[in-house]
Amino acid sequence: MPTNPELTIAWLPDLVYDGSEFQSGVALVCDPAGTIIKIARADELTDEKRINLPRRAILPGLVNAHSHAFQRVIRGKTEFRSSARADSFWTWRELMYSAATRLTPEDIYDASRMAFLEMALGGITAVGEFHYLHHTPDGTPYDDPNLLAREVIRAAIDVGVRIALLRVAYARSGFQVDANPRQARFIEREAPVYLKNLDALARSVRVENDALPDGRASDSVWVGVAPHSVRAVPLDYLRVIINHANELNLKIHMHVAEQPAEVSACVTEYGRTPVALLESEGLLSDRFTAVHAIHVTPKAIGAFAKTGAMVCACPTTERNLGDGVVPADEYLKQGVAISLGTDSHTQIDLLEDARELEYHLRLQKLERAVLNGPSTREPGASDIASVLFDCATINGARSIGARGGELSAGKPADFFTVDLDDPAIAGASCDDLLAAIVFSASRVAVREVVVGGKPVVSEGRHLIQEEVVERFADLQKKLWG
Ligand SMILES: [Zn+2]
After folding, report:
1. What is the 130 CA–ligand 1 centroid distance (Å)?
2. pTM
3. Cα-based torsion angle of the residue sequence 377, 383, 389, 392 in order, rounded to the nearest 10 degrees
4. Which of 65, 233, 399, 438 is the most buried (most CB within 10 A)?
5. Does the annotation count 343 as an active-site position?
């Protein structure tokens, strides 16, 4: 389609990351709809509207593949050791439930907006929201059974971050486990009820004017299917909803092997580990992302590789909860792609998740530079920063079904800038800038964030930051006193 040059925009930073290296003297040229036309030499520009970004480097927006936005409200509330018992994932979960059972729809909007705002400030431009709060606190559905999902979507739209609403199926507390009343807001016991609500949500996010050629309705909001775990969704239910997702070409996300207790309960119920169960039932595919996938066997890693399934690691959460270490080296060796998520939002900094993926393995193996990936340096070498940055961008986009993740023609203009004079990265050469950003930059180095060609963060400030923070502070006071 010919574009009107008067309406095209040329972003002119010092450097642009093209997926393999930083280029200087170039512009990122975007059409009025927010799609990248090309990376052009600055001296080839004609009458595009120019936006100069001195002392900045542009990088593709980060993609956060696993989030529970409302969990932002328990940040700081769980960092104590009780005297009575050992603390674990399961004691943390009780506190999370105490928040989950009390939030109103408006509270969920405010908490989600806070989480998404912090994501945007850190360069995240798309999120996969693993959403499991559906009903009123006593378990009765709202008149609109997707009211809470829509509050989360509204929050993402208002902040300006793209969202895959991965609607969670949660049928039971667990195999031979008594119902937990604190899970009443999550439960949809029957697969047909879940599918009816999923389809209603998919219809409601369809934006006629925003139709894309690949058949997905909206570029900024879409839905996916998220069976919570093998613990919470029995096999017959799982089969029905995964088949449905496959028919509609929807992404499927599922917590898999986060905790040893989940694996042993699955073996007790089915005589197979979670991954063996999924594989033997034909439920793994290239649309499937296994979130965490920590406690797995080499055979399980082979099953992901064979089917094209991906893994989403959430290292800042996994270290906080004492979950264990994702065997990322083994996954990469077998060609399993890894995306990243900020999950419980103890910290929202996807580059920290990226570096922890490597660092946890260094601590475990007493080695440096563990992860394997291609390198331009020498045959057999591995460029760790570029492996990790791909996890935070391209792989995340693939996992949640976003179109972005890289800066090339036809992709959305979703990107962030870093200040080349930021003290954490100052002095880096073009060759080591990516490593400086991945291993050493903090959020303050992120200065502009643009989604679909529209600025959402300028000079390190989000456009609605004050209001979002104020409303969130009021919510925390109401919840916790
Ligand atoms: Zn999770």
Report:
1. 7
2. 0.96
3. 140
4. 65
5. yes
